[in-house]
Write a structure and sequence with these properties.
Shape of chain A: elongated
Number of strands of chain B: 0
Strand order of the largest sheet of chain A: 1-2
Radius of gyration of chain B: 23 Å
Structural class of chain B: mainly alpha
Largest sheet of chain B: none
Oligomer: heterodimer
Distance between the termini of chain B: 55 Å
Chain lengths: 271, 261
């Protein structure tokens, strides 16, 4: 079977297709399955070039429910490809069990890592810097979004190849290793700090309340500023954080509620 | 102009919703800041477009599409609100209030798209049973057809007919409403920030958030300068703690694991 081995070009070609098809045809029923089968099909055909029955079975195997974060989770598909290759001569039942088991057990944890690092940390930091430039009308802000795409593409590329070439044991050592833990922890430390930095330029809130006294009116905003500048914006962020964390996670509801609350406060001449 | 912008709006919304190209769809088409470059180029109001796009992006920059339950449709928010705002010379605050309401459209349409796509999965099952992987790829592309029908018209119609309506509404608006919208434009980005805080999900790190915030507010550092400082501190933290760990391992003789979760 050695002539049926995959080359690096085959494996990374499948990654390229995955980057195009991953979310296309996404459905509630199978999630990313259509994208998985579309991406791996060509490699599977090569692996099972001389056995149509095995090829059909492998396509069906990859039409099962699958959902993950596309870049980090790609490592699972890289591993699945490696298993298809190594287990090519094993009985089909054994392959179904091993490969589907691998996919379903790892897709969730890797999606968790990917969502929090790619979309929860890198995107707010990198694109967030772009946004703060964009707020001043600087078109270069959009370049940061390109940079973000390149960074996560690189991550996805590396994860896919790592999954294929190193397999499950190496993945466990890397993701369980001290360096990776430090990186994940630092990502959330940096994320927290950056959210504070960005809040300062994103969020604006002042009050219009002034209390008439005998001599001159007490302007509430001036009093607040003399205590510490920027108290109201940071208070708004922490309040919304509290609501999203403890009360409701419906973003749309909170957003519309915020607009309504602002309108009410404006009517009452508080802001 | 309305017609061209409406077409572009529909196409952008379709492209982003169909997620053709994983990273690029979510990093580009879902970012109102990038959409703004397209609309700015068409209308010639680049600076206005970028400011509006950035303001809307600030709302959604940290909303994570976890498990594909998009909590808010930033693609619709930008693709529909930016052209309307540009055509009717809306201020930035009113544009972001409009974006928030438009984003709800996406939450209604996504279930339709994902249910319809189930049909393609079943077609692919048949192709898989016949061992025809090229047909699976074709079916994957075919799914774009229904996605187009679900997403394009709503953006097109809203932009094409919406701008005129918004114009009239803005003219008839009492002062407290426009003031309230302006205030909400300043407050809404707090949501984007707060969502990221919930994603990071580490209450004990909140002091770092305050640190970053007052660093900029009190010391008037630029955002870029403050972030460079932060990145340096983090690198230092990783390097130092790994060195500590090595020394510890050398002394104790075992590789001790970091146990902070």
């Amino acid at each position: 079977m050695s002539e049926n081995k995959l080359t690096k070009k085959d494996v990374m070609g499948a990654w390229g297709r995955w980057q195009v098809y991953a979310e296309m045809g996404h459905s509630y029923e199978r999630m990313m399955a259509v994208g998985v089968a579309s991406s791996l099909g060509k490699c599977l055909r090569k692996l099972y070039a001389d056995d149509d029955e095995k090829f059909k079975r492998s396509l069906q195997r990859h039409m099962t429910f699958f959902n993950t974060e596309g870049n980090w989770g790609g490592a699972v598909l890289g591993m699945a490809l490696a298993m298809e290759e190594k287990m090519a001569d094993c009985p089909e039942e054994e392959k179904d069990e091993a490969i589907n088991g691998l996919k379903t057990s790892l897709m969730g944890p890797l999606a968790g890592i990917g969502d929090s690092i790619d979309w929860g940390t890198l995107k707010p930091i990198i694109c967030g810097l772009g946004v703060s430039m964009g707020l001043t009308g600087n078109i270069l802000g959009a370049v940061f979004c390109i940079l973000f795409c390149l960074v996560i593409l690189f991550i996805g590329n590396q994860c896919w190849w790592l999954g294929y070439s190193k397999g499950i044991v190496a993945m466990e050592t890397i993701f369980g290793g001290p360096l990776f833990k430090k990186v994940v922890k630092s990502a959330s430390l940096l994320g927290m700090y950056m959210m504070g930095v960005l809040s300062a330029s994103y969020v604006a809130l002042t009050t219009a309340v002034s209390i008439p006294t005998d001599s001159e009116a007490l302007v509430l905003q001036e009093i607040l500023d003399s205590i510490m500048p920027g108290l109201l914006p940071v208070g708004a962020v922490l309040l919304v954080y509290y609501i999203l964390r403890n009360k409701t996670q419906k973003f749309g509801l909170v957003a519309v509620g915020t607009v309504i609350l602002c309108l009410l406060l404006s009517l009452l001449k508080v802001v | 102009m309305e017609f061209v912008l409406a077409i572009v709006s529909g196409l952008l919304y379709f492209f982003g919703s169909a997620q053709i190209g994983y990273c690029f769809a979510e990093g580009f088409a879902w970012m109102p800041l990038v959409q703004a470059v397209v609309f700015g180029a068409i209308t010639g109001q680049m600076t206005d477009a970028i400011i509006i796009g950035a303001t809307i992006s600030a709302l959604y920059v940290s909303v994570v599409p976890a498990g594909n339950n998009t909590p808010a449709d930033s693609c619709a928010a930008g693709a529909i609100a930016i052209p309307i705002a540009l055509m009717s010379n809306m201020n930035v605050a009113a544009a972001s209030a409009l974006a928030v309401s438009v984003a709800i459209i996406g939450n209604l349409l996504q279930p339709i798209q994902y249910n319809v796509n189930g049909v393609y999965a079943h077609i692919c099952d048949k192709h898989a049973a016949r061992g025809d992987y090229k047909a699976i790829v074709r079916t994957c592309w075919m799914s774009l057809g229904s996605t187009f029908l679900i997403r394009f018209p709503i953006a097109f119609v809203t932009v094409y007919f919406g701008a005129g309506m918004v114009d009239k509404m803005m003219a008839a608006m009492p002062e407290w409403i426009s003031n309230g919208l302006a205030v909400s434009g300043g407050v809404l980005p707090a949501l984007g920030i707060a969502v990221t805080l919930t994603v990071i999900d580490k209450n004990q790190y909140i002091p770092l958030f305050l640190f970053g915030y007052f660093f900029v507010v009190v010391m008037n550092l630029s955002v870029l300068a403050a972030s460079v400082l932060g990145i340096c501190a983090v690198i230092l933290y990783i390097v130092l703690s790994l060195e500590d760990q090595k020394e510890l391992a050398a002394v104790v003789g075992v590789q001790d694991d970091d146990d902070d979760d």
